Amino acid sequence: MLPDECSFRPGSGALLQPLSFPILTLDESKLAPTLGYHFSSEWLDPYESLISILWKFEKANALPGIVVARLLRPDIDPFDGFAPHLGEVDMGRLHDVLGLPTKALRAALLERPERQRYSEVLRYCRLCMARGYHSVLHQIESVKRCPAHRCALESMCRRCGRQALHHVGLQLLESAYRCPYCRERSGGQGWWPRKARPMQLQQRRAFTRLYVERCS
User: N or C: which end of the chain has fewer CB within 10 A?
Assistant: First the structure.
């Protein structure tokens, strides 16, 4: 039997040399390329939510949401997903996949519900979404306006009026910066590696002040 990678020259019975293709090898226990994924800590903004980080991770590595969901929690049905609370995700696994400092990853997860009340639906600032950013602070129920832009936070799609659950699952992972139901944009083009820019200093300070006030 001939090897799968061999072929015949059209119109000839002579066997060609095996073709050489780059092969992406996978560690099946992690569903990850053995050479790793690419993600830069310079792309991370202060107090960025896990969902926002994963959207950037998908864009940088051209990954579908199903792969990202299984990378984080292979024991969970990716269609159901999980709430991004501390204790719901393996921090060591998350660090291995993203290569980000543990401190930054902890800040990307919601605190225990008894310490702070968080919205179960995705709440966002359209101006932040336009640059590909969503913060854990946007999920605090008592926070009604974005600390950086002072505009009212939104949760309902302007086209279809539906709300998305703030869960790490296929619903959000497959619809970065868009409504998962009708695909309406949530504020702009979102984030791409080639146009990544750091957050402005005054905006960083606004998020930091609110984080210290509400989450420290």
Answer: N
Q: Can you give the residue ranges of every domain in the chain?
A: 40-215
Task: Quote the distance between the C-alpha of residue 19 and its chain's center.
Answer: 36
- In the prediction, which pLDDT does 35 show? 52
188 vs 200: CA distance, rounded Å = 18
For residue 98, give the nearest of 77, 68, 137 by alpha carbon.
Answer: 68
Q: How far apart are CA 126 and CA 132, in angstroms?
A: 10
pLDDT tens, 46-58? 999 999 999 999 9
Tokens of 150: 């002072």
CA 177, chain centre distance (Å): 10
d(CA 173, CA 36): 20
Task: Return the closest-CA partner of residue 188 out of 144, 139, 122, 133.
Answer: 133
Distance CA 15, CA 120 (A): 61
Q: Which residues contact 36 (CB under 8 A, 6 or more apart)?
A: 99
- What 3-state DSSP class applies to 75? coil
Which tokens hold the place of 30?
A: 């992690």
Pair 174, 116: CB distance under 8 Å: no
Distance CA 63, CA 55 (A): 10
pTM for the full predicted model? 0.82
Identify the pLDDT of residue 151: 96
